[in-house]
Amino acid sequence: xxxxxxxxxxxxxxxxxxxxxxxxxxxxxxxxxxxxxxxxxxxxxxxxxxxxxxxxxxxxxxxxxxxxxxxxxxxxxxxxxxxxxxxxxxxxxxxxxxxxxxxxxxxxx
Length: 109
Hints:
Layout: H1 2-17, H2 19-68, H3 73-89, H4 95-104
Helix pairs in contact: 2-3, 2-4
């Protein structure tokens, strides 16, 4: 056991303080940070695309219902719950909000 303490401790200390070891650790950390940054950009692009698609669909369907002059309960639920609410939670607003305000005024058949 004494031989291990005499040799092992200095070897471990040398490894932990070596520039090469910390160089490798630094490279691994930097690579992970780069991958995380790329993923964040992709996630943001995906979020923007979903908001855009929801916006387009809300406007299109809303205008169809407004021109028709009424909306069914199922159509309203699909538009409000499954499109507009997630769209709003993701930061969408503006013209889709105005269309939804008009859709809410429609009679339900």
